[in-house]
Amino acid sequence: MSEINRAVKGTNDVLPEESYKWQYVERKMLETARLFGFKEIRVPVFEHTEVFQRSVGDTTDVVQKEMYTFDDKGGRSITLRPELTAGVIRSVIENGLYNQSLPQKVCYIGGCYRYEKPQAGRLREFHQFGVECIGAAAPSADAEVISLANSVLTSIGLENLSLEINSIGCPVCRANYHKALTDYFESKKDNLCETCRDRLTRNPMRILDCKSPVCADIAKDAPVMIDFLCEDCHNHFEAVKTQLNEMEIEFKVNPKIVRGLDYYTRTVFEFISGDIGAQSTVCGGGRYDGLMEQMGAPATASLGFAMGIERLLLVLSNQNKEIGKDTPCDIYIAPMGEKAIVKAARICSTLRKAGLSAQTDICSRGLKAQMRYANKIGARTSVVLGDDELQSGIVRLKNMADGTESQIAIDNLIEALK
Ligand code: ATP
Ligand code: MG
Q1: How far, in Å, is the centroid of ligand 1 from the Cα of 34?
Q2: Which residue in 122, 146, 154, 171 has the fewest CB atoms around it within 10 Å?
Q3: CA 21 to chain centre
């Protein structure tokens, strides 16, 4: 196949027969977010490259290896967003939302772009649903945001997910931890992979996240952050756990979760599925108290999460979950002849205004071909509109499932179909 007939590697089409699943999960996401007071924000697909360098962090895999970056015709360095938090925070700052009543609670759905090695659950264009809660420092904010993620996943019908949480402290206590961690890895440096040897000086915590089995083995006995938390961070983490227990949200503390982006502080969490293989993290999030300041605004404690929609749909599909099918066509009107075609179009508009899905012939086909089409699209009912029907104003409404017919006035179709 030539390139004009082939999607770019790592990208997917959502075909018409599948899109109802996307609509279903997106509806659940926005509905649940609304219950928690989160309003949708929409930000551009691309930003100045610096927005991501600053927020996601220069030392991360995302910024170092995965970004789609190019110079536009005006010579500006532009990057397709690899995630949405950076752009959302940029917008929150630019539009002064942090000056309004806090917390500001926003949510989003959108495409993300990362130059990664495509595989199951890992794409170059993928989609995230996420939330950001700006200006909330208390542990109850962490519990609320985790509870929202949990409610979204439950409302969609996902099962068998586990919630893992950790605290990665604040810049103060993390400095001590970094030292202990660097000392530990320094003694085993020669066995680390090349990337991790580099991480040792730039960002030693990322070694804990390395997918290489050798590094993972070395990291097994590494010191963990929760043993180094300062009193404030320790108390914060304890309060989050207490509140999650109170809300009856099950979780496990996993001291190895560090998250892939630089901006996190204190609480980090992941929802993991046992049903989709290696790329098992469906949702990741946490607190990023330093980010607003790092981006040029006054210090504003904030937190959020993002979930990968493709991965989530993969879990649904692997769990054989039935989700509400697309609303079918309520009626197919098969006109015979010029006059009937015009009348059929008119009946369709009346029915559509009443909220019914109505279709008719737009290919000037014969009756047989039209009925085949009506069957194919799964029409619930059909009527034939010929000269007799036009004259009498009465049609025979056919139930496509069992073939039964009933006489009905055209003017009463809305009633009959509702
Ligand atoms: P991973 O460890 O899988 O690379 P990450 O830490 O890079 O994940 P985040 O940046 O936290 O992921 O993004 C949040 C969520 O977005 C992930 O938990 C995952 O569900 C989804 N996601 C991230 N990268 C991809 C991708 N390349 N393709 C599909 N989904 C992705
Ligand atoms: Mg990644």
Answers
A1: 24
A2: 171
A3: 13
Strands (E), 81-215: 104-113, 125-134, 161-167
Taking the mean position of all CA atoms in its chain, how far away is CA 15?
A: 18
**What tens-digit pLDDT sequence spans the chain (418 residues)?**
688 999 999 999 999 989 999 999 999 999 999 999 999 999 999 999 999 999 998 888 899 899 999 999 999 999 999 999 999 999 999 999 999 999 999 999 999 999 999 998 999 999 999 999 999 999 999 999 999 999 999 999 999 999 999 999 999 999 999 999 999 999 999 999 998 998 898 888 888 888 889 999 999 999 999 999 999 999 999 999 999 999 999 999 999 898 767 788 999 999 999 988 888 999 999 999 999 999 999 999 999 999 999 999 999 999 988 787 777 899 999 999 999 999 999 999 999 999 999 999 999 999 999 999 999 999 999 999 999 999 999 999 999 999 999 999 999 999 999 8
Q: Which atom of ligand 1 is closest in space to residue 311's alpha carbon?
A: 20
Q: Is the CB of 281 under 6 A from ligand 1?
A: yes
The ligand minimizing its distance to the Cα of 124 is: 1
Q: Maximum CA pair distance of the chain?
A: 93
Spatial CA neighbour of 330 closest among 237, 245, 418 = 418
Question: pTM of this prediction?
Answer: 0.92
Token pair for 167: 């605290």
Ligand 1 pocket mutation pick from 281, 282, 316 by most atoms within 8 angstroms of CB: 281
Residues 302/289, Cβ–Cβ less than 8 Å: yes
Give CA torsion, residues 195, 199, 201, 202, to 10 deg: 120
The Cα–Cα gap between 157 and 150 comes to 11
Check: CB of residue 148 under 8 Å from CB of residue 306. Answer: no
Look at the alpha carbons of 155, 158, 160, 164 in this order and tell me if their dihedral is positive or negative: negative
Neighbours of 154 (CB within 10 A): 13
